[in-house]
Specification:
Helix content: over 70%
CATH class: Mainly Alpha
Number of strands: 0
Number of helices: 18
Number of domains: 1
Largest sheet: none
Order of helices and strands: HHHHHHHHHHHHHHHHHH
Strand content: under 5%
């Protein structure tokens, strides 16, 4: 097996255990805050859930570019090990807290020291050949969603029958397993060829001013993560509202999240592979449209079967948004700068996540819990003109640059005699 394929496989397995670890306990934090930390007042509960959701992206937006630059200098493998080991320690300590303030403080530290997904994306993107970036990142996306599937399904059962604290301890063990898999199963990716070495010698420093074609894509990644994160913190409380009580809500939330993970598992490799053949913006527009429409019945649902069905469809479509634009970003970035650029991408995602946590918290507290899902649907629809605007910008400013057209999925058009600088119609 080629080194890059071996690395993709090993990093994918490590991310399976890593995301399973995060998913084993974190989705049930609103129930943990109520049952174990004695926060029962609805207004205080929504404020603490907002804080719990917001502090991670707040910290990651500052530290992700730092870790990304460190990955380019000291190695992507080392950064992936650092992220998994830090997460192992922090999630284990979460199981020991006695008040909600300590829980939120540890969550803030999680944002500073973890970030396994961005570290894994940088390592895979650096190792994979340019023409196979879609397959590699799509495979990683599948590993992430399958880890989420296993984590939330088993975590819901554990929380219901063994308690929420046990879920955090098991989470720590899964993150330790992820770190060990990186240690024994991966190699530091090397440059993929002489052309890459030339790029490395002539490329400007990876500051935000030199991002070039990457920066409007980073703006889209920020917007996409803002939209995708908008309702996430409130899903558990929506299940509790429909179910009618706290008892049994963790199990049902776990099953609902597992349903969404199945959808994401199917979407990742399918849409990732399509992004090597079809312009990513076109995939993104269709995904945003269907996801937005499917948020409406979720907001109005009074029975769990309707919520399960519409959640599956929405997550399937939304599951293609982030990987598709990560692929696009990878293809406009020289391999030797992908650690830094993927760090900026993680920062962009974190800023979107932070804005979503704050704004959705304001909607939940000031309007209603269900209103957050209606707002989410409207935001998905607004992604469509945002994607179109970025496409027009790149057409005006980057027309004729082969690597940009290649990133748009037109690299194979020359096989049929069509121009490689064909315009992008998203």
């Amino acid at each position: 097996m080629h080194t890059w394929r071996r690395n993709v496989t090993a990093v994918g397995l490590s991310q399976f255990f890593s995301i399973a670890g995060f998913s084993f306990a974190i989705p049930f934090a609103p129930f943990f805050i109520q049952e174990q930390l004695d926060v029962h007042d609805p207004v205080r509960l929504r404020l603490w859930v907002t804080a719990f959701s917001a502090v991670v992206p707040l910290a990651m937006s500052v530290f992700a570019p730092i870790w990304g630059a460190a990955a380019d200098r000291y190695g992507r493998r080392m950064m992936l090990l650092r992220a998994n080991l830090a997460a192992c320690l922090i999630l284990t300590l979460m199981g020991l807290v006695r008040n909600v303030e300590s829980l939120v403080l540890l969550r803030f530290l999680q944002g500073i020291f973890t970030g396994t997904m961005s570290a894994a994306q940088a390592m895979v993107a650096a190792a994979a050949p340019r023409e196979r970036a879609g397959l590699a990142l799509g495979t990683l996306s599948a590993a992430v969603f399958s880890g989420s599937l296993a984590g939330v399904a088993l975590g819901g059962v554990c929380a219901e029958f063994l308690g929420y604290r046990a879920s955090f301890f098991i989470s720590g063990g899964l993150l330790l397993l992820a770190a060990l898999w990186v240690l024994v199963g991966t190699e530091e990716p090397a440059a993929t060829g002489a052309d890459d070495l030339v790029i490395a010698e002539t490329a400007p420093a990876p500051g935000w001013r030199s991002l070039g074609a990457a920066w409007p894509i980073l703006g889209l990644i920020l917007a996409i993560n803002f939209v995708r994160s908008f309702d996430g913190a409130w899903l558990a409380l929506l299940v509790q509202d429909i179910h009618g009580g706290l008892k049994g809500a963790a199990l049902r939330t776990g099953l609902l999240s597992a349903t969404g993970s199945v959808a994401g598992l199917l979407a990742g490799p399918l849409l990732g592979n399509l992004a090597d053949r079809i312009p990513p913006p076109r995939i993104g527009k269709v995904s945003a449209l269907i996801s937005g429409l499917l948020m409406i019945p979720q907001a109005l649902a009074r029975h769990l079967p309707l919520l399960f069905c519409t959640r599956f469809g929405a997550v399937f479509c939304a599951g293609g948004l982030d990987p598709v634009f990560q692929i696009w970003l990878s293809k406009v970035t020289p391999p030797q700068r992908r650690g830094a650029v993927f760090g900026w991408a993680s920062s962009a995602r974190s800023l979107g996540w932070l804005a979503a946590a704050l704004l959705s918290g304001a909607v939940a507290a000031g309007v209603s819990l269900r209103a957050t899902f209606l707002f989410s649907g409207a935001l998905y629809l607004l992604l469509i003109p945002a994607i179109a605007a970025v496409v027009r910008y790149l057409q005006r400013n980057d027309s004729g640059r082969p690597e940009i057209n290649d990133a748009r999925g037109f690299d194979k058009l020359t096989a049929g005699g069509r121009s490689k600088t064909a315009p992008l119609h998203g």
